[in-house]
């Protein structure tokens, strides 16, 4: 059986994986991009903060934001009974974007392929073992692949790093319970965030004219209160103040879709011949709206470290791990600060857990 050989194999073709492929191509490094199929067809929308445009320009992929909705700021009911509008212009920033995630991800993959990156759809890594000075992978749909460096861009499960025995720290059990509304109501241009005793709600307009309504709640609390069931989900939605006013709930729902939204990170960011990027490196609370920004930033930082690995130099990988550690520490401090601003339900489990959340967790090299 013939073996395909690439300097770099990237497991995961979401924004982080495609961005790594683009950044490596700019450095003259060939990579194989492996894209596994989605477990479910429902795609959760996502916000892109204003800094995403500059990151995409550095990758030569600014067009990936074409046809998405402008996002001007956040309307929130958090820590107070009075709604608050936080406009990006008040921070001296431009606008962000409300994304059609499937379209955004596809644009980045297609840009990578247009530049000659080999991408394999409906694939995944079924096995990995050391081979010479690199790795031998069992790739679904292709067979055996040899790569000197492997990149885990496979999301919050860190699937490739876990196969290498790298532990992942999980800080909470937050999940997103989501559905689409038939129209975006009074949400155009803004994200809406509303705290509740059991968690918090997020809603945003989508480019296709619909809206996304999402409840962020811990898995055990969702089960106990049956919030993952359409009837109770709708009842909780109707009981909101700001959300129900701006985005009235539909009369009925057929299903509520659940997605992982917990905070966590790998115990090691990189090692000899491997590196993690995006959610596979660290999963951030959706409250930060920084998932896309973080994925692109990781890719741009990881590419030089990967190129150095190919030459046997691990110093840039250690610097990359230090960057990840510093970033995750800042994130945890900010996360705890933001959750502590909500003091209306101190006895409720969701808020008690976050009041005593850790303020630091190392991500060593």
UniProtKB/TrEMBL annotation:
InterPro entries: FAD/NAD-bd_sf (IPR036188), Flavin-dep_Halogenase_NPB (IPR050816), Flavin_halogenase (IPR006905). PANTHER family: FAD-BINDING PROTEIN (PTHR43747), SLR1998 PROTEIN (PTHR43747:SF1). This is Tryptophan 7-halogenase. It comes from Chromobacterium phragmitis.
């Amino acid at each position: 059986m013939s073996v395909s050989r690439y300097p770099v194999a990237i497991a995961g073709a979401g924004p982080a994986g495609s961005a790594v492929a683009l950044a490596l191509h700019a450095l003259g490094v060939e990579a194989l991009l492996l894209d596994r199929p989605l477990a479910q067809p429902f795609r959760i929308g996502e916000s892109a903060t204003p800094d995403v445009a500059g990151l995409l320009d550095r990758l030569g992929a600014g067009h990936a934001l074409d046809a998405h909705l402008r996002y001007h700021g956040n309307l929130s009911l958090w820590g107070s009974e009075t709604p608050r509008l936080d406009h990006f212009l008040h921070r001296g920033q431009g606008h962000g974007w409300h994304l059609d995630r499937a379209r955004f991800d596809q644009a980045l993959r297609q840009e990578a392929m247009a530049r000659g990156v080999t991408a394999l759809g409906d694939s995944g890594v079924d096995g990995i073992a050391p081979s010479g000075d690199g790795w031998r992978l069992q790739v679904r749909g292709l067979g055996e692949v040899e790569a000197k460096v492997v990149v885990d861009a496979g999301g919050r499960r860190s699937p490739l790093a876990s196969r290498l025995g790298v532990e992942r720290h999980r800080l909470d059990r937050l999940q997103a319970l989501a559905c689409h509304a038939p129209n975006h109501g009074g949400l155009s241009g803004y994200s809406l965030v509303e705290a509740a005793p059991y968690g918090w709600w997020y809603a945003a307009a989508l480019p296709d004219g619909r809206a996304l309504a999402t409840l962020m709640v811990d898995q055990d609390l969702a089960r106990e209160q049956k919030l993952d069931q359409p009837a109770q989900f709708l009842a909780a939605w109707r009981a909101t103040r700001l959300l129900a006013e701006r985005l009235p709930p539909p009369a009925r729902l057929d299903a509520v879709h659940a997605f992982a939204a917990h905070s966590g990170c790998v115990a090691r960011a990189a090692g000899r011949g491997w590196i993690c990027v995006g959610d596979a490196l660290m999963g951030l609370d959706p409250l930060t709206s920084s998932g896309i920004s973080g994925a692109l930033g990781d890719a741009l930082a990881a590419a030089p470290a990967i190129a150095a690995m190919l030459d046997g130099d691990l110093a840039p990988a250690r610097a990359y791990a230090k960057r990840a550690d510093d970033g995750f520490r800042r994130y945890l401090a900010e996360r705890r600060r933001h959750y502590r601003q909500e003091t209306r339900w101190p006895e409720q489990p969701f808020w008690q857990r976050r009041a005593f959340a850790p303020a630091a967790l190392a991500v060593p090299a």
